[in-house]
Amino acid sequence: MVIPAQARKAARIDRGDVVSVEPDGDGRILLVRLQKPRRRARSKARIVRREGTYAVGSADRTLTSELVRSLLAEFP
Question: What does the H/E/C string look like for the chain?
């Protein structure tokens, strides 16, 4: 379900929040956040500068093409 940005901001609902949608009469709905999402552990990434060549990104996990596509889909 897509919740308009103005309604999300007013209800303080973020991407990934689990909500209950209840009819409130008069064509209105009530959004109730059921649980706060758990924060994912941050990945440790760094830039490795190699002499005589270009810099390379290094991460503590393997980056697949599918993962890169999904991360770029969320990028503004």
Answer: CCCCHHHHHHHCCCCCCEEEEEEEECCEEEEEEEECCCCCCCCCEEEEECCCCCEEEEECCCCCHHHHHHHHHHCC
CA separation for the pair 61, 68 (Å, rounded): 12
- How far is it, in rounded angstroms, from Cα 38 to Cα 51? 40
**pLDDT tier at 37, thresholds 50, 70, 90:** low
pTM of the predicted model as reported, rounded to 2 decimal places:
0.36
Strand partners of residue 25: 28
Residue 13 and residue 29 in contact, taking contact as beta carbons nearer than 8 Å: no
